[in-house]
Each structure stands twice: as C-alpha cells, then as structure tokens.
C-alpha cells in the first residue's frame, strides 16, 4: 500500500479557489472572519486577541504539515471568504477529517461550501486515494448539520461531552462520514447541485 503525502495543493472549481494557506492570506481572512457569529460553535477564541493569534497558530500547523489548510477565495471578485482544512490526518489509514471550516456570512447557503467540499473530496478520494473522509459539528449547530447532510454524508452518531469550547460550553459533537464506495454517488449529487447554483447566480 502506498501511503500518500497529505498536503494542501491549489484547487479550483465552480468559481471557488482553494489556496494553500500563506502569510498573504492574513488580511483577507481577518476581514472575512470579523463577524462574531461565525465563531459561535467553533473551538477557537478570537474574542480577545483578535484574528492574529488564530492565524499564527494555523499557519504554523500548515508549515509543519500538521494539517493541510486552505484559504478560500471567490474567483469572480478575488475575495477571500474563509478557510477550510484536512485535520486529524491518518495517512496510513487513508483517512482525514474535513473541518476547521468557516466562511464570511455573506457566502453562507450559496455555492462556496458545496464547491469546497466537492474539491476536497475529489482530491481526497481521486488523487490521494483515501478510504474515508470525516466531518463533525456541534450538536447545537443545526445549520451545519443540515449542510453536511445535503452533501450526502452519513450521520454516524454523537460523541457526548466531547469538547470544552472557549466559552466553557461542553460540546456534544455529531460525526458524519463519506467512504470511498459512496463517493461516486456523492460526487454526482454535488455536481448536479453546484450546476444548479451556477445557473441561479
């Protein structure tokens, strides 16, 4: 079995570009992440030190190849609108999690999230030859759960009292996954959905 090198590479589809995170993305991400509502369910605290500590820690993970992290750019106006990553990377087991994802509120419920998931799953299953891609979210975050379900991911269950968030809340976490055998159907569903969104744009 060949163990893949799981790193961020440039990806582009459906008017969205995924760019491996670099220092040049700092200012754009600070603007995109300025709404406190974005961070409500995320395990990051940007309320006191602002975005710089988050960005410094995230960039360090990228540079050490601890995670594969991308900035998300909308190509029609060249605007940075968020970030996403592969984390909990288990290269030997051909498994990653897509997470650490957040977007500016003005792109919620549009083409950006399904386009990113399409690119990350395509890269994962078709280039890296992964067996499994995981996704998880706060059990309170119904909007995120609905978005993950629309991707075609399978809900696997709840990790109870799984994480302590910066505000002290003890989070229950809902897990989902897509496995290699399910990818063709998930891919076709995403392409059909994204093609419809493009026509509406």
Mind sketching the topology for me?
Layout: E1 11-13, E2 16-20, H1 26-32, H2 51-63, E3 68-74, E4 79-90, E5 95-103, H3 112-127, E6 132-138, H4 142-151, E7 154-164, E8 170-179, H5 183-200
Parallel strand pairs: 5-6
Antiparallel strand pairs: 1-2, 2-3, 3-4, 4-5, 6-8, 7-8
Return the structural class: alpha+beta
The strands making up the biggest β-sheet line up spatially as 1-2-3-4-5-6-8-7
The helix count comes to 5
Under CATH, the topology is which? Aminopeptidase
By CATH, the superfamily comes out as Gcn5-related N-acetyltransferase (GNAT)
Q: What is the tally of beta strands?
A: 8
The CATH architecture assignment turns out to be: 3-Layer(aba) Sandwich
- So what's the CATH class? Alpha Beta
Helix and strand succession? EEHHEEEHEHEEH
Instruction: Name the shape in a single word.
Output: globular
Oligomeric organization of the protein chains: single chain
Count of structural domains? 1
Major pleated sheet: 8 strands, mixed
Nearest-integer average pLDDT: 94
Determine the strand fraction and express it as a percent band.
25-35%
Q: Span between N and C termini?
A: 43 Å
Low-pLDDT parts are none
- C-alpha Rg, in Å? 16 Å
Q: What percent of the residues sit in helical stretches (DSSP H or I)?
A: 25-40%
């Amino acid at each position: 079995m060949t163990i893949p090198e799981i790193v961020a590479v440039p990806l582009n589809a459906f008017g969205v570009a995924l760019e491996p995170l670099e220092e040049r993305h700092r200012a754009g991400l600070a603007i995109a992440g300025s709404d406190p509502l974005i961070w409500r369910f995320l395990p990051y605290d940007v309320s006191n030190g602002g975005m710089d500590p988050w960005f410094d820690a995230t960039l360090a993970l990228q540079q050490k190849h601890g995670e594969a992290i991308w900035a998300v750019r909308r190509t029609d106006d060249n605007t940075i609108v968020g970030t996403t990553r592969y984390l909990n990377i288990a290269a030997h087991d051909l498994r990653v999690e897509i997470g650490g994802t957040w977007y500016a509120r003005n792109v919620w419920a549009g083409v950006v999230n399904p386009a990113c998931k399409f690119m990350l799953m395509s890269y994962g299953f078709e280039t890296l030859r992964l067996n499994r891609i995981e996704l998880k979210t706060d059990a309170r975050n119904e909007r995120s759960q609905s978005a993950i379900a629309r991707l075609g991911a399978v809900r696997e269950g709840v990790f109870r009292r799984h994480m302590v968030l910066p505000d002290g809340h003890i989070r229950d976490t809902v897990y989902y996954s897509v496995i290699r055998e399910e990818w063709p159907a998930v891919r076709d569903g995403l392409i059909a959905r994204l093609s419809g969104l493009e026509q509406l744009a």
